[in-house]
């Protein structure tokens, strides 16, 4: 429960220090006295986001500090927190929030922490219920949680098992989707892998192969071009079947020259010319033999061109830019195709496991559905009995279930709270007035288990819209609720204020500051009288106040 609260520079309050006890503590004061400032301070304690406009006018900093005494049964709420953030050995937990214009700081047990961590702890300790809190009756998630809190222990175990199985099924489905997507990607990316890998074995790619093959091809083309030119020149020298070559013309020219030479020179010249022509013919023959043996270059060129073409085709098929990329692709393709083959049994196993988990989850959901319906019937009975005590006996509270087609973590049900009043029936907010919604929510809180209730409940004018007997009955039920958890109540209703185990009065001083203090005895009589009549000094109102206080 909340034991101590200190607030400074919040709203109209400069500073207030309050100590609370168990039971029902009422907070009263005239309109504008500063009750809402206390509520805003309690909201900060509960983890609501703070803003600069909450600061007292003219102040740069404000905040709250609260000390809770955590009962043994509630300490498990903090098991998710670090050891240094949990309640100490005495069960005390200190929470502090400091507000400035543009930022705030929060701490737990003196350790500065993020607001989300703070909310995780403080939000479990204190719950604020304002005039509009009945809107939680319209939240289907909250409604279902209320039903679940009323189920038997075995049903709650079923719900926990369902959550566990459902999460396993989700994990399994995620793995299944990931594997299916990866298989599809491998099949798409390596659709032609068998053709590529077959070519790879023939091409034997390695870094720099394309450049080396291009170099070889260029050299071969140069040699082949040179031999073609040489062949053409040899044909000009030697001639062919249909025409004479240059050598024949030279031989004829020499023969003509010999005819005009003197006898003594003719023999020497003829011998020299014949020798020269023989040497030249032998050179031509040798050159021709060399040119004719060059056919091997053509064959090699064809081989290199085929090799280079296959390499380039490999790169096109694999979509890679160079040999390194091609080798990496082949390595990945080999591993991926191997994984693809091995993954099929795993895919089958995951599919089977998914079906089995969903079958189990479905069976648990059906079991949970039966338990929820039993709990809903019991809750309806308790709530309707309390509605009679709250002067709403003409209304009937009902819980309606809607079966879902798709299984969720929390089962296969949605729930809706409805109210039947005479011929009218429908969702609670469509049938009940604001005051009736407040009483219905109170009846629900009284009907739910203690585990549903936080250690401290704050009601901010929850009796708004009630009056007369309905207000008194609501007050009695608040008193009853305060035996199960600590209740702080901001109220304008005298009959309810008189039921408090402790009474806090908030007044505006002559200087315009809000003063907060506990009152008792005649001071409390005068405050109840003021709430009854508007004047604390009216004798009849004081007598009525004493009667109300004496009836506690």
Characterise the protein shown here.
The chain has 552 residues and is an alpha/beta fold. 55% of the residues lie in helices and 18% in strands. It is built from 16 helices and 15 strands. The chain has a six-stranded antiparallel β-sheet, covered by helices on one side. A six-stranded mixed β-sheet has the order 8-12-13-3-14-15. Strand 10 and strand 11 form a beta hairpin. The chain is elongated and about 180 Å long. It starts with a strand and ends with a helix. The model has no long low-confidence stretch (mean pLDDT 86).
How would you describe the shape?
elongated
Global mean pLDDT: 86
Give the termini separation.
23 Å
| Share of helix, binned | 55-70%
Backbone structural class:
alpha/beta
Largest sheet: 6 strands, antiparallel
Number of helices: 16
Q: Find the count of extended strands (DSSP E, 2+ residues).
A: 15
Strand order of the largest sheet: 2-1-4-5-6-7
Q: What does the radius of gyration come to?
A: 49 Å
